Amino acid sequence: MEEQTNQTTTENKNVKNSAEGEKKGSGSKIILIIAAVVLVLAGLIYLFIRLGPETTGQIRDVTLVITALEGIVTTAAFVILCIQAARLVNFLKYEISPILKTADKTAKKLYGTASFLSDQAVEPAVKAASTVSGIKSAADTVLSVFKK
């Protein structure tokens, strides 16, 4: 038993060490990615300086057009999101709410039916069974006295 506990403890330590190693590895990956992005940006800046003002201006214009298109797409996505949110609210208000009200009414009717059955059928049956059991116990006691 002690041997098994030691093995489990060793396995837990190995899992912790591998998790810590993964965390350390992910930090160095992030640093490498940041360094690569900085180098690419530095290379682009150098390229723009070497190309001259006309080519750089054309690249600037293309970048502005792409940014404007991204803005249009983002705005369209936001409008679609708002429309979907409105449809969801409408669905919840007019479709789900009546279903929940009907379920609530059904639950209340079930509670009433269960209470009625408990009061009118189960309770009298329990009283009758307990009375019969008491009479049987009394009869057994009386008969055991006469048998001796």
Write the layout of secondary structure elements.
Elements: H1 2-51, H2 53-147
**Average pLDDT score:** 84
Question: Could you state the order of secondary-structure elements as H and E?
Answer: HH
Shape: elongated
List low-pLDDT spans: none
Q: How much helix is in the residues?
A: over 70%
Computed CA radius of gyration, to the nearest angstrom:
40 Å
Reported for the largest beta sheet, the result is: none
Amount of beta strand: under 5%
Total strands: the figure is 0
Total number of helical segments? 2
Structural class determined from secondary elements: mainly alpha
Cα separation of the termini: 60 Å
Verbal overview:
98% of the residues lie in helices and 0% in strands. The longest helix has 95 residues, at 53-147. The chain is elongated. The two termini are 60 Å apart. It is mostly helical. It has helices spanning 2-51, 53-147.
